[in-house]
Write a structure and sequence with these properties.
Helix content of chain A: 25-40%
Mean pLDDT of chain B: 95
Strand content of chain B: 25-35%
Largest interface: A-B, 36 and 30 residues
Order of helices and strands of chain B: EEEEEEHEEHEHEEHEHEEEE
Largest sheet of chain A: 8 strands, parallel
Mean pLDDT of chain A: 95
Strand order of the largest sheet of chain A: 3-16-15-10-9-8-7-4
Oligomer: heterodimer
Distance between the termini of chain B: 36 Å
Number of helices of chain A: 8
Strand content of chain A: 15-25%
Low-confidence stretches of chain A: none
Structural class of chain A: alpha/beta
Strand order of the largest sheet of chain B: 4-3-7-1-2-6-5
Largest sheet of chain B: 7 strands, antiparallel
Number of strands of chain A: 16
């Protein structure tokens, strides 16, 4: 039996293996604890939190598309304080890294959220969602204007010593530019990609199917776009990239690693199969065993060699 | 992981042109399903459609779990073609169930269309005790009527076109019953499943008569276990997940 090293580093954070959950698809972890051992995961990334609880969008919030789904949940969450009181004690009982995704409506809110989360035992890293609307600027998305991205990531960087992951929006012309901007502003790692903005129209009612009209596309339908973006970002930055977007099986995860990802996050697959993360981890290990790959880090960016 | 398993199709037979009855062999380790709960069932041949489909428990028999479903879209069309022996991934039983009525109460059960699938085993639980108000578009859309009449105290049928029973909806039928019934209405407890407008009407009638009432809500679902927050309905306490806090809610909790 060949020994296999699955551990990876995301900044100062060491994960026992590269399989993480994608924020917004794994609740606060407890929803899935009945179906798998959370301790087997490299990291659990919990649903995005804001300082105060957020109600989210009216239904219908989800609609299926070919090999994917659109969601317009609207960042509904219980708020940071309830998360600390009710969810962290449960997550602390598992031997895995806990990464908290968070967001704000203003730079001050991002900073306040990061500061509040940084003092909590059991939180090992932060993931910034910069795909939400910037109410200060009134019109832009935090993650689509390089100047605003620099400002918000820089401000959060000063507010926390925890490893800081910035989750990039794919809804930009040049994602490698945005990746460089986030890296320069102090990100320890980048999550690539968030959902792609899309729309489905009901031809009977002649209206958009989602109450919010548009939503975020996820699932296997977006995987080639995500792999391409990971490939481009890997070339543009030195910090680790966490690849995500339509990973359903171990082979999908391998593609992301070959494109340059250090770790992967599993999202929509959790909805289809609550044990998807573990199946994907097993698939990665099977690939390594078949190819006699002793260290998973040897796979990183291998597709760039040609 | 007894709520996530592979189940073998034992039977998948049409009961009407667009309705099928699916019987699944389920593992003995599966928790006992209760009326009102549902299952997420694989209904694809790849990734399109991607998500499992949510179906109410129709009935649990010695042979397994039965699902009565209407062929409505891509997933159910694929499911309809699946043969005996096919293995399907299943998640369940999930969600809340219909709470039991007080011992001396008469359950008034309202079913609209395929809503009968959800309340059928609930009625079966109360031999010759429940009064069922069963509405459908036409007489051809009334499913399992003979069986229902076998164990309900009474079945009051209504159809939109008047082709069977009274002309109108199940809510009309309930309203008429409550206005003309001699026994004290405090002895009733209402349970309903069907289209949103029917449930809203039932809720209003129940409120007017001050009768406790429970409704089974429906929304698009992705995960079925409370993680995605995709299937919410508006309640007095804010949005609630149909898959977790529901599908059965007290009608007065819903913001219609």
């Amino acid at each position: 039996m060949v020994s296999m090293d699955l551990s990876v580093r995301i900044g100062s954070l060491e994960l026992k293996n590269p399989v993480m959950t994608a924020s917004g698809t794994f609740g606060y972890g407890e929803e899935y604890a009945e179906f798998l051992d959370l301790s087997r995961l490299g990291a659990v990334v919990v649903k995005g939190l804001s300082l105060l609880p957020k109600e989210g969008n009216p239904p219908p919030r989800i609609v299926e598309t070919a090999s994917g789904m659109l969601n317009a949940i609207g960042l509904q969450n219980i708020g940071i304080q309830r998360f600390i009181d009710e969810k962290i004690p449960f997550l602390r009982t598992y031997d895995t890294k806990v990464i908290v995704n968070f967001f704000g409506d203003s730079i001050e809110e991002y900073v306040a959220a990061a500061e509040r989360l940084s003092s909590v035992e059991g939180i090992h890293g932060l993931e910034m969602n910069i795909s939400c609307p910037n109410k200060q600027a009134g019109w832009c998305i935090f993650g689509t204007d390089p100047r605003v991205t620099t400002e918000v990531v820089g401000a959060v960087r000063k507010a926390t010593k925890l490893p800081l992951i910035v989750k990039l929006s794919p809804n930009v012309t040049d994602i490698s530019l945005m990746a460089k901007v986030a890296e320069d502003a102090g990100a320890d790692a980048l999550s690539v990609i968030n959902t792609l903005t899309g729309m489905v129209i009901d031809i009977k009612t002649r209206r958009p199917k989602l109450a919010n009209r548009t939503g975020g596309l996820s699932g296997p339908a977006i995987k080639p776009v995500a792999v391409r973006m990971v490939y481009e970002v890997f070339k543009a930055v030195k910090v680790p990239v966490i690849g995500m977007g339509g990973i359903m099986h171990g082979d999908d995860a391998i593609e992301f690693l070959l494109a340059g990802a250090t770790a992967v996050a599993v999202g929509t697959a959790n909805f289809v199969n609550p044990n998807a993360t573990i199946d994907i981890l097993d698939g990665i290990m099977a690939y390594m065993k078949d190819g006699k790959v002793e260290d998973i880090n040897l796979l990183r960016g291998a597709a760039h060699a040609i | 992981m007894s709520r996530y398993f592979k189940a073998e199709i034992q039977e998948n037979r049409p009961v009407h042109t667009v309705h099928n009855l699916l019987t699944l062999n389920v593992p003995v380790s599966m928790p006992e399903p209760r009326p009102g709960q549902f299952f997420m069932i694989e209904a694809n041949k790849g990734t399109d459609p991607l998500l499992k489909r949510a179906f109410s428990l129709f009935r649990k028999t010695g042979q397994g779990v039965q699902i009565l479903y209407r062929v409505r879209g891509k997933g159910t069309a694929i499911l309809k073609e699946m043969k005996k022996g096919t293995l399907l991934e299943v998640l369940g039983p999930l969600g809340t169930c219909y709470p039991l009525p007080p011992a001396d109460a008469v359950p008034l059960v309202i079913a609209g269309g395929i809503g009968i699938a959800s309340v059928f085993s609930f009625v079966e639980q109360f031999s010759r005790r429940a009064i069922v108000f069963y509405g459908a578009r036409t007489k051809d859309d009334l499913l399992m009527l003979d069986e229902l009449q076998g164990f309900a105290k009474e079945v009051r049928v209504s159809t939109d076109d008047g082709s069977a029973g009274t002309k109108g909806t199940a809510a009309d039928s309930l309203r008429h019953f409550l206005s003309h019934h001699a026994s004290p209405i405090t002895h009733h407890c209402i349970y309903a499943c069907g289209p949103h407008l029917l449930l809203k009407a039932v809720s209003e009638i129940a409120g007017a008569h001050k009768i406790p009432s429970y409704v089974s809500m429906e929304e698009h679902m992705a995960c079925g276990i409370g993680a995605c927050l995709g299937c919410v309905v508006k309640t007095r306490d804010g949005y609630a997940r149909v898959c977790k806090e529901g599908p059965v809610f007290e009608a007065r909790e819903i913001v219609w």
